[in-house]
């Protein structure tokens, strides 16, 4: 039998007496791309953090190339060839690619080498990935996708035999995703094994050889991708048959010209935007479609008072308004779920409860006193409706899994009295079940006469879910569609 790269048996790990992994098995073979899936909070990150020495296991065994192993730090694991490519990239933007590739190695006492020599030595690692970037370039001039390639090259320079890619396609354009998949195939052909964490099940069918599904602390399915299907994976993740639709056709809300728009932009310009006009009518979900960097997020930021207008006007309920800050936007009934949820949407050291209630303080405060039971019922409702996996409403959000943090940000916005919600990629990093719940809640929200502007990098979502879609390109609105639904292919063609 071929020797396995990693063979983990009956792994256990808990935090503060709260078991997360109760009996997890995981086998990784050489040259294999192995997907790790499970609902938000299932323990995917915890498992890889046990394998790379970031956390210490409470029980179970791990063998690396047939040898029992126990790493007490990521550095130790790295020395044995296990490298993580994190979602939050760990490169130093002001340094060159070559400097970044060898950064951790010089810390290990390698003889100092000249810049030119370092650039010469870096080049083959980039070439091995088949990417055409100059090692002299500064990392800050690279796209997110290119930065990820530098992270991978850095791991190769450290002689990685196992790479962990955590949500690698998040924030990548379609072209970059294709490039990434080519790189993954190259790595595979060089015998490198890859652990691939993602919520995009169709990516798994496309790029992974095997899948392990975690649920309730256990491995519930280990299979070759060729022997399974998306439906089977979803059922294993949820423990039940579920609605696995990837589109959300809704009842179209016909625009009623007699109604006053909840929000209107007329000829709005900023440093990044040029003459943007759009309307949000009561009951409507407005979609913004465009390639990465097209200006979709900038439109939301201009509305939310994060960037000053250099021209044009914003109207709320038909009246011109000036929105100079998020606070002023919230006062006018506009709230936003930002794309960068950890840094912009949450106070990490505050509890789930404080984070959810932060934006609705006035609604639940009764003169000088906070109405505690009203607050608790809003928080409980949010936890239940969105399925936030937490030990309780007092748990600090820092210790929630990435997807559950996102749910708290969404819960916080939905619990306010906002009439218009700006949702910037709200379903990114969210498991398929929670996605469905979020779409349902947004539906209910607009059915009450509210409005939503929705940005998503998944064209199938925008195409099927929105009443009106504006296509954004280079900071301008270039097209508008009101026929519903639009297919992913139609929308993709429109944004090019
Ligand atoms: N340092 C910690 N302290 C306390 N609890 C933690 C800690 N790290 C993780 N947890 C808990 O362990 C559980 C699993 O989290 P983990 O991040 O491994 O999930 P995940 O499957 O990666 O989720 P996601 O898909 O949302 O990224 C969560 O309930 C989380 O709150």
From TrEMBL:
<dbReference type="InterPro" id="IPR017871">
    <property type="entry name" value="ABC_transporter-like_CS"/>
</dbReference>
<dbReference type="InterPro" id="IPR050107">
    <property type="entry name" value="ABC_carbohydrate_import_ATPase"/>
</dbReference>
<protein>
    <submittedName>
        <fullName>Sugar ABC transporter ATP-binding protein</fullName>
    </submittedName>
</protein>
<keyword id="KW-0472">Membrane</keyword>
<dbReference type="InterPro" id="IPR027417">
    <property type="entry name" value="P-loop_NTPase"/>
</dbReference>
<dbReference type="GO" id="GO:0005524">
    <property type="term" value="F:ATP binding"/>
</dbReference>
<dbReference type="InterPro" id="IPR003439">
    <property type="entry name" value="ABC_transporter-like_ATP-bd"/>
</dbReference>
<keyword id="KW-0677">Repeat</keyword>
<dbReference type="InterPro" id="IPR003593">
    <property type="entry name" value="AAA+_ATPase"/>
</dbReference>
<keyword id="KW-0547">Nucleotide-binding</keyword>
<keyword id="KW-0067">ATP-binding</keyword>
<keyword id="KW-1278">Translocase</keyword>
<keyword id="KW-0813">Transport</keyword>
<feature type="domain" description="ABC transporter">
    <location>
        <begin position="6"/>
        <end position="241"/>
    </location>
</feature>
<feature type="domain" description="ABC transporter">
    <location>
        <begin position="258"/>
        <end position="494"/>
    </location>
</feature>
<keyword id="KW-1003">Cell membrane</keyword>
<keyword id="KW-0762">Sugar transport</keyword>
<dbReference type="Pfam" id="PF00005">
    <property type="entry name" value="ABC_tran"/>
</dbReference>
């Amino acid at each position: 039998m071929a020797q396995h790269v990693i063979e983990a048996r009956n792994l256990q790990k808990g935090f503060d007496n709260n078991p997360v992994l109760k009996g997890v098995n995981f086998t990784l073979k050489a040259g294999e791309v192995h997907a790790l899936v499970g609902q938000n909070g299932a323990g995917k990150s915890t498992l890889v953090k046990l394998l790379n020495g970031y956390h210490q296991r409470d029980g179970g065994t791990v063998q690396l190339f047939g040898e029992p192993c126990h790493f007490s730090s990521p550095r130790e694991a790295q020395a044995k060839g296990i490298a993580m490519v994190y979602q939050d990239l760990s490169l130093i933007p002001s340094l060159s690619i070559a400097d970044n590739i060898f950064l951790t190695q010089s810390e290990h006492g390698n003889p100092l080498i000249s810049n030119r020599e370092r650039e010469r030595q870096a080049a083959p690692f980039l070439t091995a990935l088949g990417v055409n970037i100059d090692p002299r370039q500064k990392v800050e001039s690279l796209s997110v996708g290119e930065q990820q390639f530098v992270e991978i090259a850095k791991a190769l320079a450290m002689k990685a035999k196992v790479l962990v890619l955590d949500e690698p396609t998040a924030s990548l354009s379609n072209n970059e995703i294709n490039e990434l998949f080519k790189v993954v195939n190259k790595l595979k052909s060089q015998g490198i094994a890859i652990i691939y964490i993602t919520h995009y099940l169709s990516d798994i069918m496309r790029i992974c050889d095997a899948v392990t599904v975690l649920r309730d602390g256990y491995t519930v399915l280990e299979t070759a991708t060729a022997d399974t299907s998306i439906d089977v994976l979803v059922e294993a993740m949820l423990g039940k048959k579920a609605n696995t639709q990837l589109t959300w056709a809704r009842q179209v809300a016909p625009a009623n010209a007699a109604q006053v728009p909840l929000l209107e932009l007329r000829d709005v310009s900023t440093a990044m935007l040029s003459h943007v006009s759009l309307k949000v009518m009561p009951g409507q979900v407005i979609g913004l479609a465009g390639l990465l960097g097209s200006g979709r997020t900038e439109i939301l930021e201009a509305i939310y008072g994060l960037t000053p207008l250099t021209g044009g006007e914003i109207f709320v309920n038909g009246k011109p308004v000036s929105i100079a800050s998020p606070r002023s936007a919230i006062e006018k009934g506009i709230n936003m779920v930002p794309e960068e949820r950890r840094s912009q949407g949450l106070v990490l050291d505050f509890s789930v409860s404080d984070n959810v209630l932060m934006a609705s303080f006035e609604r639940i405060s009764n003169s000088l006193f906070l109405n505690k039971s009203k607050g608790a019922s809003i928080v409980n409702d949010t936890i239940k409706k969105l399925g936030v996996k937490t030990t309780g409403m007092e748990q600090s959000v820092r210790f929630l899994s990435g997807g559950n943090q996102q749910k708290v940000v969404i819960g916080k916005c939905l619990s306010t009295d906002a009439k218009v919600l700006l949702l910037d990629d709200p379903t990114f990093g969210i498991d398929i079940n929670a996605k469905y719940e979020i779409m349902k809640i947004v539906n209910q929200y607009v059915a009450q006469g509210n409005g939503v502007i929705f940005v998503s990098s998944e064209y199938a979502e925008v195409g099927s879910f929105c009443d009106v879609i504006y296509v954004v390109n280079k900071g301008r609105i270039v097209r508008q569609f009101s026929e519903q639904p639009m297919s992913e292919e139609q929308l993709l063609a429109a944004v090019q």
